[in-house]
Amino acid sequence: MSGAPTSHAVREPAGTDALVSVSTWRSRPGGEQELERLADKLMDAAAGSEGHLSGTVLHDAGSADYHFVHRFEGPEAFARWHHSPERVALHRELDAVAERQGAPQRITGLETWFLESGTGTATLKPPLILLSVMTYAMMPLVTRLLRGWLYPDDG
User: Fold this and answer.
1) For domain 6-124, which CATH number applies: 3.40.50.2000, 3.40.50.2300, 3.40.50.1370, 3.30.70.100?
2) Helix, strand, or coil (residue 11)
3) Which of 108, 112, 110 is nearest to 122 (CA)?
4) Using CA atoms, how far apart are residues 1 and 60, in angstroms rounded to an integer?
5) Rounded-to-integer distance, Cα 88 and Cα 112, Å
6) What pTM did the predictor assign?
7) Where do you find CATH 3.30.70.100 in the chain?
8) What digits encode the pLDDT tens for the residues 21-40?
9) Which of 83, 101, 94, 120 is nearest to 38 (CA)?
10) What are the tens digits of pLDDT across the range 43-96?
11) What gap in Å lies between CA 145 and CA 112, rounded to an integer?
């Protein structure tokens, strides 16, 4: 992996409320190369799981921490992957060369807007009433008013 993030193509159906899972693993001394190999193997295996949208490994050169980020179509797709024998076996291998740091974080949809980047710490409470008004009242009106500009080929 040579310190660069590994990514897989994003395949996200329109209107999905994706679930994002983030876990951090710290390499045990001497386990860095094996952890990198397993991280690639884990990302490839997850990419083949039904409902997996994308995955990446974030790792700064010189750091023992590796952050695994997965996006799924929703909780059902995540559960399929989480309970799959392939994932369980790979995590057993990971346990031999790395130690999980904290509990994995799982967030969905608009919740990601209200988290401080990279920390999983809530920065403010979502404005639920305002969000609903904007989503269901204002945006359809604005979309209709700007239809000619947004969709110039619709005539």
Assistant:
1) 3.30.70.100
2) coil
3) 112
4) 11
5) 27
6) 0.62
7) 6-124
8) 889 999 999 999 999 999 99
9) 94
10) 999 999 999 999 999 998 889 999 999 999 989 999 999 999 999 999 999 999
11) 29
